[in-house]
Amino acid sequence: MELYMPVVALGIIATGFAVFSIVMSAVVGPKRYNRAKLDSYECGIEPTPQPVGGGRFPVKYYITAMLFIVFDIEIIFLYPWAVAFDNMAVFGLVEMILFILTVFVAYAYVWRRGGLEWD
Amino acid sequence: MSSAAVLAAEFQAPSFEYSLLSPLLVIFGVAITGVLVEAFAPRGSRYLLQAVLAVLGVVGALVATVIVGLNLVSRGGGTAHGSIAAEGAIAVDGPSIFIWGTVLVLSLVSVLLFAERRLEGGVLSFAGQAAALPGTEAEREASTRGLEHTEVFPLMMFAVGGMMLFPASNDLLTMFVALEVLSLPLYLLCGLARRRRLLSQEAALKYFMLGAFSSGFFIYGIALVYGYAGSMNFAAISAAVSGRAGGEGLLLGGIALLAVGMMFKVGAAPFHAWTPDVYQGAPTAVTAFMAACTKVAAFGALLRLFYVAFGGARWDWTPMVWVIAILTMVVGSVLALSQTDVKRMLAYSSIAHAGFLLTGFVGAQQVADVGIGEITSLQAVLFYLVTYGFTTVAAFAVVTVVRDAGGEATHLSRWSGLGKESPVVAGVFAVLLLGMAGIPLTSGFTGKWAVFTTALAGGAWPLVVTAVLFSVVAAFFYVRVIVLMYFSDPVGEGPTVATPSILTTIVIAVGFAATLALGVVPGPVLDLAAAAGEFIR
Amino acid sequence: MPLWWPLLLSSLLFAIGVYGVLVRRNAVLVLMGVELMLNAVNLNLVAFDAYFRDVLHGGQTFALFVIVIAAAEIGLGLAIVLLVFRTHGQIDVDTMRELADREEPAVAER
Predict the structure, then answer these.
(1) What Enzyme Commission number(s) appear in the record (chain B) (predicted)?
(2) How far apart are CA C50 and CA C52, in angstroms?
(3) Residue among B193, B112, B124, B111 nearest B157 (CA)
(4) Which residues contact B531 (CB under 8 A, 6 or more apart)?
(5) Residue C56 has what DSSP assignment?
(6) Number of folded domains that form chain A
(7) Alpha carbons B314 and B399: distance in angstroms, whole number
(8) How far are the Cα atoms of A56, B268, B522 from residue B387, in angstroms, in the given order?
(9) Residue B347 to residue B336: CA distance in whole angstroms
(10) pLDDT tens, A81-113?
(11) Complex confidence, ipTM
C-alpha cells in the first residue's frame, strides 16, 4: 500500500487544486456576460448552426471511421509478440509476418473496392 | 525470482502442427484467396472463380481430413485417439475428424445451393448490391447490369472454418474465437437476400443483436470458469473440477453462462426465439447452410465442453440440461403446429430436433458403461447430426424451387396441390418430411433410435418417454404438410415448380438419397461414428 | 486490494450492459449495451489474471482478443444497422415485427 501513497497524494492535491480553482473563480471573478461567452464552444471558431439533434453526418465518415478502428485494433495482436518476441524466436517472426499479410489482404480488398476513396 | 526469470524458465517456443491442422488451414486459405479474388479479378469472371475455388477448397479440406483421420494415433488407452495440436489449443481427435467430415460434406452441398443462378434468371439469389435501396435508380442499375455479391463465397468459407474450429477447440479462448468466426459471416449472409430485402435485413439485425447478446454471456462464463480453474485449457479445468478446488459458485455460474451461449447457438428453448425469424428471413440457401452446419458444429462444441471440461461436474449440470431438453422439445413441436410459413415450420422442427439431440447428450452413456456392439451417447449424437444435416439441407433446397411471381412461395397455403403440379418435387419433400418425423426406413428413425437407446441405457428414461411423445406430436405437423400437398386443391393459380440448374438438383438428390440410405443401411455411418471413439483429454 | 472489488465492479457493469440491451429501443444504443457487457468481462479477466499471477497471462491475452472481436462485431453490427436504417427509415428494434409468429388460422382449416 505504501507504494501507492504518492499516487494517492497526487490525486488529493489535484482534486484539491481543481476544487480550489473553481470555487475561487466563482467567488472572486467578475461576472460579465456577452454573446460570445454564452455561445457554445467550438475550439475557437465560429459555431456552425446545426439542426436539432446535432444534424446528420455523411455516411462516408462511418466507413472511414470503421476502417480506421478495425485496422487500428488489429495491431493489438502485435502487443503480446512485442512482449515475448525474444522467446518466440523465428517462429514468432514468421507467424507475425503471416498475420500482417492477412491484414494486407483485407487492406487490398478495401483499396480495390473503393473503400478509401472519399468521393 | 523475478517475473522475467520465471517467464524465461517456463517459456518454450511454441510449435504448430501444420499437417494435423491442414483441413483448417486449407479452408481459411481458400477464404483469404477468395477475398483477393474479389479485390483483383475482373467483375465478369468472379462468379466462376469463386464458385470453383470454394468447391475445390472444400473438397481439398475433405481429402486432408480423411488423410489426417487415417493417421490418428491412439492416446491414453481406450477408444480415444488423436493428438492435441497448436500448444493445447486444438484437439484433433476422432470426434473432431467426424464433425469436420460432416461439416465439410454439408458445406460442399451448400456451396452448390449458393451457386445456383438459374432460379433467379441468371444471377445469384443474393442481393445484387446490398447497399442500394429497393426501388431506386441504383437498385435498377444493379439489376440491369446483373451485379452480384460474389463475396458470399469467401464469407461462407470463413464460416465453415469457424464451424470446424469450434468443435475441435480445446481451450476456452479458441472456442470463443471460433464461435465469433462462425457467427459474424452468418450475420452478414442473413441480410443479403435478393427478394424480400426488408425481411432479410430484419432477420440479420435480429440475429446479430441476439447473437452479440448471447456471446456476451458466453465470455462472462469463460471469465468465471477461468477464475475458478486458473486456466483456459480444458484439461486444466477438468482437473480443477475433479479436484473441487473451492469456489463452487464461480464454477456453477460459469457453467450456466457458458450454457446460455451454447444453447443459443444450437437453438434450444428458451434461447430459441431468433431461430424462426432468422430462418424465415434469411436467403434460403443461407438458411439451409446455417440450419445444418451450425447445428453440427455447435453440438460438437457443446459435447466437448461439457464432457471434457465439465465432465467431473456432471451432476451439477444434468438437471439444467434436462429442463432445457424437455422445454425445447415442447416448444419446437407444439409451436410448429400453428405455423403457416414453410421456412418457419422447418425452423421450429429444427428446434425440436435440438431437443432430441439434447436428450442423447444428457443421457450420457459413457465408454465404461458400453457393452459389446453398443455405442456411447457421443457417437449416437454424432450419427443423429449426420442424418439431420442431410435431410435439412435437402428440405430447404426444395423450398427454393417452389416459386410464384414474388420469388419463393413460402406460405404453406401456396403449397396445397403441389402433388398434382409436380409429383416428383412433392414426393421428394414428402420423403424428407417423413425422415424428419422419424418414420422407419428413413434416416430420422435410425438417428432417433440411436439417440434414444443410448439415453435409455444412460438411465434418462423420463426424458426418452417425453421425446417419443413429442416425436409423435412433431410427426403430426409433418404429415399435415404432406396431406396439404396431396389432398388439397390449389388455391388460386397454384404453385409452380421452377426447374433449377444441375446444382440444386444435385443438392436435393444427395439429401434425398442420404435420407433413404441412412434409414435402410445405417451400418457404415454408425460404424464410422463408433470408430470416432471418444474425445481425447 | 481484495479480488472481489473488481469482480463486483465488473458484474455491475455487466448488469448495466444487460439492462441497456433489454431496455433500449434504438439499435445503436443496444449495441452500446453489448459493448459494455464485453468490456465488463475484460475487467474480470484481467483481475483474475493479476490474482493468479498467471505466467502465460491467459486472462490478459483473452482480454486483447475480446477487444479485437468486439471491434469486429461492432463494425459489422453498425453496417447492418446502417443498412436497416436506409431501408426501414428508422432503427427502433421494437418496430421490427415483420418476422414474428402470427395469429393466423392454420392453413389446413381454410
Answers:
(1) 7.1.1.-
(2) 6
(3) B111
(4) B94
(5) T
(6) 1
(7) 41
(8) 52, 19, 10
(9) 8
(10) 888 888 777 888 888 999 999 999 999 999 998
(11) 0.92
B292 closest CA partner among B432, B91, B493: B432
Chain A, 86 to 105: residues with Cβ < 8 Å from chain B are 87-89, 91-92, 95, 102, 105
Q: How far is CA B63 from CA A95, B14, B105, in A?
A: 26, 27, 11
CA distance B86 to B286: 31
User: Which amino acid would we find at residue A110?
Assistant: V
Residue A119 lies in a domain: no
B123 Cα distance to chain centroid: 27
Is the domain covering C4-99 a CATH 2.30.30.90 domain?
no
Other Cβ atoms less than 10 A from the Cβ of B403: the count is 19
Cβ-defined contact of B13 to A102 (cutoff 8 Å): no
Does residue C6 contact residue C49 with C-beta atoms inside 8 Å?
A: no
Burial of C21 (0-12, 13-18, 19+ CB in 10 A): buried
Q: Is the peptide bond before B270 cis (omega within 30 degrees of 0)?
A: yes
Continuous segment of H or E residues that includes residue B407: strand B407-408
Strand partners of residue B193: B126
Tell me how crowded residue A15 is: count the other CB atoms within 10 A of its CB: 10
Q: Do A69 and C75 touch (CB under 8 A)?
A: yes
Could you give the CA distance from residue A110 to residue B151 in angstroms, rounded to a whole number?
Answer: 13
Q: At B30, is the secondary structure helix, strand, or coil? A: helix
- Side chain identity at residue B192, one-letter code: L
Sorted by sequence, the CB contacts under 8 Å of residue A82 that are 6+ apart come out as none
Domain presence at residue A118: no
User: Is residue A53, in this structure, part of any structural domain at all?
Assistant: yes
Instruction: Residue A16: give its domain's CATH number.
Output: 1.20.58.1610
What strands lie across the sheet with B407-408, from one edge to the other?
Answer: B407-408, B402-404, B496-497
Helix B502-520 vs helix B423-437: crossing angle, to nearest 10: 40
B207 Cβ neighbours under 8 A, 6+ residues apart = B186, B187, B190, B274, B277, B278, B282
pLDDT per position as a tens digit, A33-63: 877 777 776 666 666 666 666 666 677 787 8
Domain ranges of chain C: 4-99
Suggest the residue from B3, B6, B10, B11 to mutate for an interface test with chain A (most A CBs closer than 10 A).
B11
Distances from the Cα of B393 to the Cα of B50, B109, B114, B179, B386, angstroms: 21, 8, 12, 22, 11
Q: How far apart are CA B197 and CA B143, in angstroms?
A: 14
For B304-369, the three-class secondary structure string (H helix, E strand, C coil) is HHHHHHCHHHHHHHHHHHHHHHHHHHHHHHHHHCCCCEHHHHHHHHHHHHHHHHHHHHHHCCCHHH
| Residues forming beta bridges with residue B84, ordered by sequence position | B91
Contacts of B150 in chain A (CB under 8 A): none
Q: Which of B15, B24, B36, B181 to mutate to test the interface with A (most CBs of A within 10 A)?
A: B36
* Residue A22 C-alpha, separation from nearest chain B C-alpha, in angstroms: 42
Three cell numbers at B502?
Answer: 444441375
**Which domain, by its residues, includes A102?**
2-112
Cell (9 digits) for B164:
470446424
Predicted confidence (pLDDT) per residue in B309-337, tens digit: 998 888 888 889 999 999 999 999 999 98
| Cα atoms in the Cβ-side hemisphere of radius 13 Å centred on B152 | 31
Residue C76 and residue C91: Cα distance in Å, rounded?
Answer: 15
Chain C: closest CA distance from residue B214 (Å): 9
What cell was used for A10? 497526487
- Answer yes or no: do A108 and B32 touch at CB < 8 A: no
pLDDT value of position B456: 87
Q: Which amino acid is at B130?
A: A
Q: pLDDT, tens digit, for every residue of B178-197?
A: 999 999 999 999 999 888 88
Nearest to B172 by CA among B212, B228, B213, B211: B228
DSSP state of A48: P
